[in-house]
Amino acid sequence: MKNFSILGLGHIGRVHQQAILDAPNAQLISVIDYNLPEDISVKAYNTLESFLTEDQETDVVVIATPNGLHREHAIRCLKGGKNILIEKPLALSFEDAKEILAVAHQKGLRVFSSMQLRFSPVVQYVKNLLENNSLGKVYMINIQCYWNRNRNYYKLRDWHGKDDMDGGVLFTQFSHFIDILNFWFNDVQCTESNSRNFTHNDITEFDDSGIVNFLANEAVGHMVYTTSTFNKNFESSITLIAEKGTVKIGDQYLNQMLYCDVKNVCCSNNISTEQKNFHPNAIEEISDALLRKNPSVLDGHHALNLVKFIVDANAMAKANKELNAIEIQ
Ligand SMILES: NC(=O)c1ccc[n+]([C@@H]2O[C@H](COP(=O)([O-])OP(=O)(O)OC[C@H]3O[C@@H](n4cnc5c(N)ncnc54)[C@H](O)[C@@H]3O)[C@@H](O)[C@H]2O)c1
Q1: For residue 86, how far is its CA from the centre of ligand 1 (angstroms)?
Q2: 12 CA distance to ligand 1 centroid (A)?
Q3: What are the tens digits of pLDDT across the range 39-52?
Q4: Residues near 37 by Cβ (< 8 Å), separated by ≥ 6?
Q5: Span 2-113: which CATH code?
């Protein structure tokens, strides 16, 4: 059994609270939030400092505060002797993400990343197809993320929409899709990126839509994303076009096999699942990895390239925009 504490009991902090309850090898012993709700049945702290001074029992702190605070909170927890599970992303810059891992290494502690869609059976099924070469050479990858985030979404939390705290839609909305690429392929690199702001010009400090080209091993990839889709989320999917098969998976939680036609492989729709919340799988995995001292698919170094990919995509999109602005003048 491993003892967990949650830093930041907001929307996703609550999901972790339930996940820790559901996991057979984990228990929640405290929560830390400067704005504590009243219905807390475990020890509660309203500053990280008071927690780090008093706590002697926590094995893992779940960092579920806004993206822009992850670096500071991660490093303080590590220096306080705690293993950490950082909500996505690890940090908003590649340097900050590397610094977190370096401090953990110095302290002999572990950093995990909340990339829970890696536990979707559909995602794992495709990973097996790739690993046993059932798909042969992968030619093309297409990611489509057509979502809606309306004005209320940005008004509800003051960190949403801010460059330094939120970091943009690739970090906050679409990082799981890029993470799955990193889970499936060894070498994923952004090669070109363009972005536009269609419906959030007066409400976010970053663009709401874009097109990213990338390479994943030998395959060429293309990602189209937006939070400007009319009325509600429309589609989330990843398609692989390969030598020996075509596969399309989707739904917001990548839990549905939408199309599967692979040579000599009997693909079944039974792989799809109604499970959408994979946080309990992640908590169980982390407890187990600590108890057995095993490596984990959630080890922080697996989440480094995700940060690099998004930082590169955002920088390329910004540079292209500036170039276009100069050309228009
Ligand atoms: N893995 C996923 O699928 C997923 C889904 C949603 C959000 N997230 C991530 O989870 C994190 C939190 O998102 P959220 O939607 O829960 O945000 P939220 O605003 O609902 O919750 C953040 C909480 O942190 C607390 N907090 C902020 N600063 C603090 C500080 N200095 N000390 C103590 N408490 C502090 C706030 O009071 C709030 O309760 C973000 O990094 C986000 O990207 C991940």
Answers
A1: 10
A2: 6
A3: 899 999 999 999 99
A4: 9
A5: 3.40.50.720
